[in-house]
Amino acid sequence: MSNAFLTSLREKRESKTSLIQATLDRAAEEARDLSEVELANVEALNLEIKKLDERIEQMSDIEIRNQKAAEPVIRIEIDESNIKIILIVFEIPIFCKKQSGKVRQIVIANAFG
Fold first, then answer.
1. For a Cys-Cys bond, which of 39, 71, 109, 110 suits 34, CB 3.0-4.6 Å?
2. Residue 33: partners with Cβ closer than 8 Å, 6 or more residues away
3. Whole-number Å distance between alpha carbons of 44 and 80
């Protein structure tokens, strides 16, 4: 399952990285240092990339947790008469925001047996 938002963030990051590389390549081809304007642009793009990296990491963590939670957890219990009881538990992550703006996870488990 692909996360379109996460893909979009990665594409934005790649675009900004390409702009930085193009600026550096142009200066190298012309055998000169970056101008003040170019340097300011590179620094601004670098800051944007750092912010994107943070957001990508957050979204990746959520994506991994969602994938993991979608997988059934199988539990096997044996009672006194040696009859096996198999429970399949699906954990459904639900996210809510705290007042501080940080996201915390609440997990609800559904048991089917």
1. 39
2. 27
3. 67
